[in-house]
Structure formats: structure tokens, C-alpha cells
Amino acid sequence: QVQLVESGGGLVQPGGSLRLSCKATGTFFSIDSMGWYRQAPGTQGELVASITRNGMDGITYYTDSVNGRFTISRGDAENTVYLQMNSLKSEDTDVYYCNAILFGKYYWGKGTLVTISS
Q1: pLDDT tens per residue, range 66-89
Q2: What is the spatial distance between Cα 108 and Cα 118, in angstroms, rounded to a whole number?
């Protein structure tokens, strides 16, 4: 089992920055991939960014709308994942969920709200 806890959401003005963190706890040796999804109520969720573990070359993915503005990274212990979000726009407002994939099974955090507003 893997438990994911997110932190770092909040309110920021357009053009500002936020850094989301997610820590995985539980019984596991390594997590193949971690990432961030976002979803507003009543909408389909979107994969924002993901990263494989360092032993899998730390391959990253970004959805087009955040490419060049967001950076995903994993901590040295590889049970943490970060999302540095710069040049934030109003359309980035959403609940952001941390995701982990372990042996083909998906795990989710409870989400952290990010609000971009002046």
C-alpha cells in the first residue's frame, strides 16, 4: 500500500509561482512513476506532469499547456515528487492530485487546491 500526501497549494496572483510537494509512505521498495493530475469539479482530469524513477532515467512528461512553465522532480529518496509552477495563469486554477504507479497499480493523494487570482 502507498499513501500520498500533497502540500503546497494556495492562492497566488497571475504570473506568480507555487511549489507542490507530495510524499509517499507505506511499504514499497520503489515507485516506478509519480506525477500530478489536475481536475476541476465536473471536468475530466488532466495529467499535468509525470516522472519515472531515477533508475528508469527520470523521464519526464508535461502536458502542452504547462511545458516551459512547470518543472517536475523527484527527491533523492525517490518517495517524494515536486512540481515547481512558474508563470501561473488563471487557467491553472484547479485541484492538483499526486499520483504514483507501483506494479501497474495507481495510487492517489487527496488533492491540494491551487487558485490563481488577482
Answers
A1: 999 999 999 877 789 999 999 999
A2: 30
